[in-house]
Amino acid sequence: MEAYETVTRSRTKVSLLLTTVLFIVFAFSFFNYLLPAGSGPFALAVLALLLLGYSVLTNARISKPQAAYIVLVIVFSLVSLLPAPYSIAKETGVPVSLVRVTLLLIGVSFGLQKGWHQYATTFAVCLSGVHAVFTLIGYVFPSIYLSQIIPRLPSEVAFEALRFYRSNLHPGITWQIGANAVYMAGGMAGVYPSIVCGSRKGLGLVAFAVFLLALLLTGKRGQLLSILVGLWFASTFDAKLKRKSAISRSVLVLVLLTVLTTLVITFIPDAATPFLRFSSNAGRDITSGRLRLYMSAIALFTEKPILGWGTGAFSYLYGMGAHNAYLAVLCENGVLGFLAFASVFVSNLWITLRASRVACDMYTEDRKALLFSVAMQVFFLVYAMTGNPLHDAFIFALYVTASVIPWSILRDAGTGYGG
């Protein structure tokens, strides 16, 4: 028998509270910018308390590996939070740290429960789909977009959306093309497992093409490259699970993605914007000014290498993020913060691999959720080289939720790793 096979079974019963909280966390990620200022972090804090209380009431057991993981999360949280009130950017650093810690707390709490992972891909695809629809409306029906959709957005969101739209870049109903590109990446990661192991592969391919087109219309290169790398890793991961050649699967995925992208660009030339941006920067700084930010982050790190300048310091000093999460952690939280940061992310990848090895007979929904988790984790880690996903709560919320999916799977399988 292969490493796993599709097994028919009824879904694990998940409490209404868990399902509702999961949906709200996803909704926060996809639509928090529409909320009144300050309401998003408050809602996250309430959700974290609800999940913790639920874990206590249900007497959730904690395995030794999970206890070790929780310790790493606590250390990273403390390194991020404790120096913030004393940094030069405490006005912004403290709120950013609190949201980061709250999201990590939500992730730990979800990891103490089982079964909820079955709904993760569904929520991701549905909410990404909303953004994809409005992005395509903006491209196909510009008059409707400008007269009916833009006026209904909050004024500050509408202003920024129009600024990008007039440059022939498509933010959809978001305030920036970068955010819209992340949402499309989430949709691609959510649909991909259905193409691999779903019963409606044709419908999955159509949905994937829609998300890909919408992402291309944003013109963002970093998100496009990051999700393609994430999907490539997910395909290799899937091949290993089935004890098939990872090389042949990787080549096949690369060919299919290339063909699909070429077809989209051929029929819709405006979708070539991300690639044209590479050629337009030929002979110039292909990093679009990021190299200067990187050097500044390194310079700050050398001045305070142990504990750093405090969360949010780089944005305070330079008016923008470092556009590299690794360098941002180094300069803001020092070596200690970076080691804690790296430990958490490496642990997430380790437990993902463990979930694939322990749960030998993978059920369809488990398999979908695990592939989604792999794609989103790799997307985050790659995008962290050119973006600010650790400081952007809407991206970090997606990552945290996806990264604890393996714990839910292990608990569902009744292994010792999940408690």
Would you give an account of this structure?
The chain is an all-alpha fold and 419 residues long. Helices cover 71% and strands 0% of the residues. The protein has 18 helices and no strands. Helix 15 runs antiparallel to helix 16, helix 15 packs parallel to helix 18 and helix 16 crosses helix 17. The longest helix has 34 residues. It is globular and about 55 Å long. The N terminus is likely disordered.
How far apart, in Å, are the first and last alpha carbons? 28 Å
- General form: globular
Per DSSP E runs of 2 or more residues, the count of β-strands stands at 0
Helix content: over 70%
Unreliable spans are 1-9
Mean pLDDT: 88
Radius of gyration: 21 Å
Oligomer: single chain
Summarize the structure.
The chain has 419 residues and is an all-alpha fold.
Record the SSE blueprint.
Layout: H1 16-31, H2 39-57, H3 64-81, H4 90-111, H5 120-140, H6 142-149, H7 155-165, H8 177-197, H9 201-218, H10 221-241, H11 246-267, H12 273-280, H13 290-303, H14 313-318, H15 325-358, H16 364-383, H17 393-403, H18 405-412
